[in-house]
Model the fold of this input.
Amino acid sequence: MPNAKLMQGNEACTLGALAAGLDFYAGYPITPSTEIAELCAEELPKIGGKFIQMEDEIGSIAAIIGASLTGRKTMTATSGPGFSLMQENIGYAGITEVPIVIINVQRVGPSTGQPTSLAQGDVMQARWGTHGDHPVVVLAPGNVKECFELTVKAFNIAEDLRVPVIVLTDEVIGHMREKVVLPEPGSLKISKRKAPTNPAGYKPYEADLDGGVPLMAAFGQGYRYHVTGLFHDETGFPSNKSDVTDRMLRRLMRKVEKAEPQMRDYFEESAHDCEILVVAFGSSAMSSLSAVRQARAQGIKAGLFRPKTIWPFPEETLRAYAAKAKRVIVPEMNLGQIALEVERVIRNGAPVERLGKVNGELFKPEEILSVIMGGKQ
Amino acid sequence: MSDSLSYFRQNRLPHIWCPGCGHGTVTGSLVRAIARLGLDKNKVIVVSGIGCSSRAPGYLDFDTLHTAHGRALAFATGIKLSRPDLKVIVMTGDGDCTAIGGNHFIHAARRNIDITTIVMNNNIYGMTSGQYSPMTPKGMLGTTAPYGTVERSFDLANLAIAAGATYVARGTAYHAPLLIDVMEKALLNKGFSVVEAITQCPTYMGRKNKLGTAVEMLNWFKERAVNVKAAAAMSPDKLEGKFTIGELYNKSEPEFTAEYSALVEQVRRKFDTFQGGVRECAQNSD
Ligand SMILES: Cc1ncc(C[n+]2csc(CCOP(=O)(O)OP(=O)(O)O)c2C)c(N)n1
Done:
């Protein structure tokens, strides 16, 4: 008897996190993400894990970085305003290579915006929100089941690459209820950061310059090493030598770039032979899929490409699907963010039609269908 | 002496601090307090924010974490909650602790989380070259207070006490033996402890305010500091222009991570049939 349950996206993210080994959560309440904190507060003590409600989101991300350094699998969840506050420490986790997972249940911004309404306006912030070039991975579930799966995947990537991983959901996916068949415990692939075996000669940031991932010792185990947000050499101590800086930043960026083919994740339907390609992610893709199916039913060669890894963006795959398309349509709940990436990727191909919506209401399939059918945007 | 030296990463020296800076005296005092207690190097974590003072952990032979400006206590909270068995120490500056980090400071105090916080108070932003801080006394000069600051400063010790800290003391770089004593007691307190260590910044605070050399600044501390015990018997006009040093507050109260661990035990007993997620961090299950 499979373990099937009716649940909302926020719950699925939490269960995915627990399945992946989450044992430390710090957060600050914010709509529409709060159910994640509430569920963690309830579940973590049952398994000997820890939950803390911090004084703000800056403190929340700081606390999970600290706890991750002691060997725990850690997470926080938030929405727009809180995500903005976390930015400085996302960069800190990136440069110090501390695995953490952040769930951002997007709502309408900027500012307090519309707390209970849908938007997908944090695409660029998730990639470039903190200052400086930095490594980050962003995953976007398209339904409740994927909230579970991609949160597991987020932890695995965080552990394997020692990077901050962001799960970018939205108000609709977070609160929508669907039946999810949970995988058997033990059937999932669960990663754990690679640790050194001996403190003697341990160099905390020694790794192959071609995107290597250093071994990570937990604090309190006798390694006695230094972690800093300053540029540092293999020993972990600060260095302002220009060659050290250059090498380090290139390695950090290369880690993610090199792992892109293995991380790449997407969904497509009827994209192989399509003339009209719809590119959408998250909740916009639900309406898009329905529109594509209706178009096909009317004999129109439409297809959907839905990236699940949105940073790094699955360029190669999109390029292949877009090769034969005459039109590319990008519906998203913002005024053109993922569309910028689509335009960049297929720059010599079909024209890209941006279909932005920012009134807080999910696309109706007919709105997208009418564009597919050549109606006015 | 050799005992305390063994707690330093001697290959990281010399330090970056200016000649005459008091941060080294405070760091040395902390290390001596740790040496007196004979703490296990492998079980001490030192966390700092950003500033001259926050560079101290880099010279100490523990697991050390140099974080973001103002956030040391929030990182330390994650570490301590995760591993209550570790001794967690925060080294922070007056700006780091009371300006950008003020919120984390009062909340760490409110929780009474077992973290020992050493505030290296030089009354100025040293690292960024001498701007006024929330601890700069009214009327004194900083590069952003060219006519003297009109802002009032914090009474850090009373702030800590009001917010819930259970051990609070003050010392100065002149009174190093006292600093070692209060740091030792702060480390022993099972709860949130604050030691305000007043230090001289001859380069910025001193030069800007014509306070003289490091030695003259230390003499200034010597002349104006009154031990709390002596102060208790002094009249208000005798205390005019003075400040108190020594142990200002010491009270035993329930500690946050211990309370949380007790709660976890309670919940686990109730839900011992829970078939939860994959568990791999057995070493951290406390
Ligand atoms: C978010 C952020 N804001 C500002 C700075 C710049 N900054 C670095 S250190 C510092 C002040 C440090 O003063 P204090 O904490 O008193 O320590 P001191 O250097 O005097 O020891 C400032 C403002 C920063 N690094 N990060």
Notes: Residues 277-286 of chain B have pLDDT under 50 and may be disordered.
